[in-house]
């Protein structure tokens, strides 16, 4: 069975933490592909500053050179609240011969018990959790604290800790500060060209 990783995120904007997490997950679980899934309406955080089309375009730009990465627009096409269970059920119907893995940073791993229909979701995907500096779960021993339905359903992947967040990038843009090397160079120039997050050209 083909093994596909699903990298869900708001990507407001995509940054190198997302890209490294996806690549580390690909290696950790021997995935043949990783599909990036931008949310339409995130269910647990403020609404994005950039539109779905803008966030998707930036992800397309960021992953263009990776032969095994692509964008899956299921959540943007569906619109409304982006619950992962709905996305996974839809993808399983469209791709019955695929094993799906859902990729998360360690901050989200600890949040998993609060996700909609998580017991059902944990039967449909294996989660791959990547360490994220500053996340509460970073130093905790995760497995014993997990509810039964998540035991054995979370694979840990290793990646160099990247203390970058979309929040930090949006703030930097608004303050006219550099985001060079925090995002791929073409993403940076696109953000400036579109004037996103209050950015202006700082070259
Ligand atoms: N630096 C990072 N290292 C590892 N995983 C990350 C990192 N940044 C984000 N992730 C993971 O990528 C997924 C999507 O994250 P998201 O698009 O919300 O980015 P974010 O930087 O957390 O955004 P924001 O700052 O707006 O909350 C989540 O599972 C998150 O844990
Ligand atoms: O389905 C849920 O209940 C749920 C709750 C929190 C987060 N998620 C998903 O987790 C992914 C990462 O979320 P975020 O906010 O870090 O972009 C994204 O695809 C969200 O839709 C999903």
TrEMBL record:
<keyword id="KW-0548">Nucleotidyltransferase</keyword>
<keyword id="KW-0067">ATP-binding</keyword>
<dbReference type="InterPro" id="IPR014729">
    <property type="entry name" value="Rossmann-like_a/b/a_fold"/>
</dbReference>
<feature type="domain" description="Cytidyltransferase-like">
    <location>
        <begin position="6"/>
        <end position="172"/>
    </location>
</feature>
<dbReference type="GO" id="GO:0009435">
    <property type="term" value="P:NAD+ biosynthetic process"/>
</dbReference>
<dbReference type="GO" id="GO:0005524">
    <property type="term" value="F:ATP binding"/>
</dbReference>
<comment type="pathway">
    <text>Cofactor biosynthesis; NAD(+) biosynthesis; deamido-NAD(+) from nicotinate D-ribonucleotide: step 1/1.</text>
</comment>
<keyword id="KW-0547">Nucleotide-binding</keyword>
<keyword id="KW-0662">Pyridine nucleotide biosynthesis</keyword>
<comment type="similarity">
    <text>Belongs to the NadD family.</text>
</comment>
<dbReference type="GO" id="GO:0004515">
    <property type="term" value="F:nicotinate-nucleotide adenylyltransferase activity"/>
</dbReference>
<keyword id="KW-0808">Transferase</keyword>
<dbReference type="Pfam" id="PF01467">
    <property type="entry name" value="CTP_transf_like"/>
</dbReference>
<dbReference type="InterPro" id="IPR004821">
    <property type="entry name" value="Cyt_trans-like"/>
</dbReference>
<dbReference type="InterPro" id="IPR005248">
    <property type="entry name" value="NadD/NMNAT"/>
</dbReference>
<comment type="function">
    <text>Catalyzes the reversible adenylation of nicotinate mononucleotide (NaMN) to nicotinic acid adenine dinucleotide (NaAD).</text>
</comment>
<protein>
    <recommendedName>
        <fullName>Probable nicotinate-nucleotide adenylyltransferase</fullName>
        <ecNumber>2.7.7.18</ecNumber>
    </recommendedName>
</protein>
<keyword id="KW-0520">NAD</keyword>
């Amino acid at each position: 069975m083909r093994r596909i990783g699903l990298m869900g995120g708001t990507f407001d904007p995509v940054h190198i933490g997302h890209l490294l997490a996806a690549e580390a997950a690909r290696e950790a679980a021997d995935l043949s592909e990783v599909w990036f899934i931008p949310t339409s309406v995130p269910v647990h955080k403020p609404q994005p500053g950039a539109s779905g089309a803008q966030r998707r375009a930036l992800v397309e730009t960021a992953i263009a050179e990776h032969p095994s990465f692509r964008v899956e627009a299921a959540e943007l096409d569906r619109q409304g609240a982006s619950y992962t269970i709905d996305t996974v059920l839809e993808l399983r119907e469209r791709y019955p011969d695929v094993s799906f893995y859902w990729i998360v940073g360690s901050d989200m791993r600890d949040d998993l018990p609060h996700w909609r229909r998580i017991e059902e979701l944990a039967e449909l995907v294996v989660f791959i959790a990547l360490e994220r500096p500053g996340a509460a779960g970073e130093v905790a021993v995760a497995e014993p604290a997990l509810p039964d339905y998540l035991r054995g359903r979370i694979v840990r992947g290793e990646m160099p800790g990247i203390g970058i967040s979309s929040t930090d990038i949006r703030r930097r843009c608004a303050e006219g500060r550099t985001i060079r090397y925090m995002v791929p160079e073409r993403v940076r120039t696109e953000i400036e060209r579109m004037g996103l997050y209050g950015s202006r050209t700082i070259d």
